[in-house]
Amino acid sequence: MATSNLHVRRKLQSDQPKQEEHCDDGSKNNRKRRNEVGIAMSAVALLAVVVLLGYIFLLPRHQKRAFLQVIKNPWAHGGAAFMSRENVAGFQHHFYSGPPSYVTVVMPSVVNPKGRPNRLQSIQETWGPHARSIFVLSNVTHEFPAAMVHNAIISEATQPENPFRYPQALQVPEEIGDANGVPRLQFVIRTVHEKVNPDFAFFVNDHTFVIPEHLCKYLQNFDPAMDLYAGHALKSDNDVFNSGAAGYLLSRNTMKKLVKAWQGTDPHCTLDPNNRKSKWLQGNPGVMSAVCLKEALNVTAIDTREDSKFHRFHAFPLTRSVSGSVDKWYMNKHTAEMAQKIGADESYATLLQGDDCCAKSTVSFHYVEYLETRALFATRERLLANPHLTDKELMTLMIQLWPTGRKVGAYSRALPDSQNVEEWKALMRTVRKIATREMQQECYL
């Protein structure tokens, strides 16, 4: 019996290493499979990263910039989207975090200053929120009290409580009066650059009508790290400047250079109180800025026409642009000589009329009073919602919406007489042209 038990024990002992060896083989196989799975998952992840980076690389610059901005801080973007839409009437622009890609700075118009509150109100309720408007104000309480209600004031001591709420108000210090055009513009550009820090700023006044979607698309072609001074170029003596009425664009890089130049002593960027031309420039700050840009910074205006033919920025309203009834002085500021200075051909010297007056991608019209702002905005909205309106329906709609008589404004023009068939045809073709769904596609700025 003892011998039998000993035999059994020896057999068990002899079998044990085989079992352990079998277990070791199983563990090795499991580890091997886990390693293979890990390698496969890493390969898939690496491939996904490569594909993602390749996709980003192939995107147009504006989409790439937007995509990378979201990836950099996705939580902030998501939070901004949720926060900004809550109880913010008219919020339309794309959510983002950090500095905005562009803002529209609305300067005070010298025409009909008493009507400014009405104009700002109409901008606030039409194109203003989408264009990320910043109203330049001397008296917030009188001109735009909504800014106080929503704590949306930019000043030397304050910032908007919600940076995603537009319009905002930029408070000009009391010591800079309305007559001090150059110091006011310098303060505005410096404050916008330092406190808002947009990629681009579009400077207009409260008589300007802006189509934000078209502005957004136009800016997709430019880099904020490069210089940009763009608008509707005009001749001034031997210089070229962009119409402040039609609005002009500055990139972040150009604003930075201007702010630095104003701190220096270059005579092209500073005012000499004893110089007659300097006194004239005090009332024409846009011209002085253009001189400073060209002479001190080598930044000049450019040809902004669509297809080098159709203007995007207009110093006159829709009706006058279509009919060609613009002022003689304005026509004289388009010459073949100045066209060469902005890299344009001689066709720049001739202002077109009819539906050729305006690009499909038109960005702005000027001398637009508050009722015309509402009418043009409502007409475009109706056409975008129903592009198949007949000419009769469109004409009836415009007649119902458009102001008449003195309400049109001193520098605008009423709609054509209903019997003026040719002018109505040109006007309706133009309205349809600037209100196409194609131009309303998503913009990534």
TrEMBL record:
Asked if the Swiss-Prot or TrEMBL record annotates the protein with the keyword Transmembrane, the reply is: yes
Could you tell me the membrane topology recorded for this protein? Single-pass type II membrane protein
The record's principal subcellular location, in a coarse class, is membrane
Protein location: Membrane
Molecular function (GO) terms for this protein are: glycoprotein-N-acetylgalactosamine 3-beta-galactosyltransferase activity
Database matches in Gene3D superfamilies: 3.90.550.50
Note the PANTHER family from the entry: BETA1,3-GALACTOSYLTRANSFERASE, GLYCOPROTEIN-N-ACETYLGALACTOSAMINE 3-BETA-GALACTOSYLTRANSFERASE 1-RELATED
The name this protein goes by in its record:
Core 1 synthase, glycoprotein-N-acetylgalactosamine 3-beta-galactosyltransferase, 1
Q: What is the lineage of its organism?
A: Eukaryota, Sar, Stramenopiles, Ochrophyta, Bacillariophyta
